[in-house]
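User: For a benchmark we're assembling, each entry needs the component sequences followed by a predicted structure for the full assembly. Here are entry 17's components. Please fill in the structure.
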Amino acid sequence: MQKTITTTLLLAALAACAPVLADEAASSAVAALGERIFHDTSLSSSGKMACSTCHDPASAHAQTNDLAVQLGGPDLATPGFRAVPSLRYMNLNLPFFFANDGTPTGGFTHDGGAKDLVEQAHTPLLAAHEMDNVNAAGFTARLGRAAYAAAFRAVFGTDVFADPERALLAAEYALSEYQNTSREFRPFDSKFDLFLQRKIMLSAQELRGMVLFNRPDKGNCASCHTSTRQADGQPPVFTDYTYDNLGVPRNPDIPANADPAYFDMGLCGPFRTDLSARTDLCGQFKVPTLRNVATRHVFFHNGVFHDLKTAIEFYVQRDTNPSRWYPLDANGRVHKFDDIPALMTRNVNTTEAPYNRKPGQAPALSDAEIDDVVAFLKTLTDGYDPITNSADPARSARDVKRGDE
Amino acid sequence: MKHRILALAIAACCATLALPARADDATLKAEMDALRAEVAALKAEVEQMRAASAAPVATSKPAPAVNAEPVPALAATTAPAGGGVDSGYALGANTTLWGYGQLDYNRPTARPADARADLTRAVLGFNHVFDESTRVYGELEWEHAIASADDAGESEVEQLYIEHALAPNYGVRAGLMLVPIGLLNEHHEPTQFYGVERNFVEQAIIPSTWREGGVAGYGNTDSGFQWDIGLVTSPDLGKWDPTSPDGRESPLGAIHQELQLSKAHDLSLWARLNWLGVPGLNVGGAVFAGKIGQDTSKQFEGDANFPADNARLLLGETHVRWQSGPWDLTALYTRGTISDTQDLNLGFLGQPTPVPKAFWGGYAQAAWKALAWNQSSLVPFLRFEAFNTGAAYATQPQGFGTPALPTQRVWTAGVNYYLNPNVVFKFDYQDFRYDDELLNYGNRFDLGIGFQF
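Assistant: Structure for entry 17:
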């Protein structure tokens, strides 16, 4: 709360000393600054890392390599803790809250700990495993040397660099304006969008995959990865921005996991601290958008899988063939849900399709059906070109830029 | 129960039900004609009976409240929806307060854990007369006892309109009005229908309580015709949620707007014609037709028009009700179609609830005032209903079509016990052809309390 008030006051102050902010041109000037910051590697202790290093527009604003966690810090050797989410189709106006029925909803990052994009930008700019500016002074010193420092002053006040806290907040605000306003982050130009607009038809296999994705008795994927329009008419974004505990296997490739006592439990910590008493929420992570999912290099918050088909196989075989996914314990029994403290494994969702089955039962989707679902998910990639029947998120980012000019 | 007339009525009604299951719009009129013929036969059959008993069945119309002020005659001929001006409590010379309430208990026999007791509705209405020819009529309702952001209840305005009589027998209305279709929509007080719950056909096919905003004309003729015509807001197909069972429970109930910031790009027409020429008889029908796409277009950049922008709704209904002596016999059939749903449903492939192309329902009901003493009466009844909220779906690419839903059939047998004409206690048993847990359909006992003043 304290922090919220401070942020609000600071933003108000910023707005006051730069009255031009009120109009749209100014807002786009702010967004333009945000875009430059987003791509500026000089704003890191290594001099080699920007937001776009991990959130590359060509990879739908996600990571370009297949590391489970990215390496940052002064010599790009300090490992992070989670896989990089795509920044496309984030829900912009939904700070974290509990819905009427108690469902955690909204917020930014895998655990919803960041209230909005201003607050979110704080972490990567300063954190030791990311851009590693340590504090506002460190960041402001680098920002003051940037080629666009004069433009920054023109927008936020000539004395803005004199107050590092203010300069940092202004930069975070610029970043959030950029992500909020640029259509690069929500082009809605996938094959599926053209299909919804009745401009093209999906192939029979893609349609089959869509049916399996939606059917409550098959994939049941749409119950969390919403595939219908929002109430306000917005095309589907394939997430309902809620949280769930899928019990994904522990990933030994994450260095922090070398410590057997370390668990990343999402909503209840350790990164997020306000819900640590809610042990029933331990292990829950935000439902990600599945738009551009076929372009991802790693899957789930801990990047444990490297291929889309495997990720879906995990969904349908987690409970029918657990030995494929989890290691054996000391007694030679399958240690199911090994990435959650033993006492909390009951938090894992075992009631909803497709993971409501028992060993020996047939998985909810057959191998051929999983291929159909994969084919459907591939229609969700941005930058679709009907002539070549191929999609490329880099293309849509480029096209949007051209359109903006 | 074994009375000849009853058997005949049920047979006649069932015949009308069986026929239309495969009917399309064009046959609606034919069905109405057939129904008329059957009514004529029925009329002949009951002629003797009518002579035998004079008192109408208790439910036909509540007795005027003792202290009701005299009200201008303007609306007396077309009884307004709801409580009506002839009941209620006078709040001064020009204003009448009226109301009704309904409390239910449902106990599914197979799932006793789903038994529910509910204060289904508490309603207050008013009728305020401005002058000889103008009045305002309103109905305010609370459903399920508590309405707040965290509770299941709702608080709503069901009707609110100005009525202006242009002559003693016709006039105009403007505002939020009940759609004059079917028998229940305008007369939905618990004392007015048999059984604890409203019949399914007039909830699933004709949503209950269905109201739209707009302007309407009403009137009646010396020859016994009652007519209504209106230009009103339409449902909004953009509200359709294919992931929810709501559209399977009631296709129109899922998309009507209730004048709640209603999208009003597309409007609808309603028209009704009843013949009430013989006391106790009500035979007639109604249609509601209009576009329902609401031009939900281009709200988002890169977005296309709403895929069902041209969708049209056509809902037709025909009924006959014959109240004579101890008998109250009813048959009703209704059928709706929604056009141009193919593209919309294509985007819903695999979802549990696509938009139906056709839906229909019908019922036959017989009630018999078995006992009457002082103000009280005991009225057993039997009702058979058949309805299908997804009787047909628009075609899709080979192999991706949606099969029609199975037709639900419900028998309801029970009794209304009127302590007096305005206070009723009800009991019934309902037998469903198939269970549907999501819609709460399954054999059950119901208990109810209802009143109106």
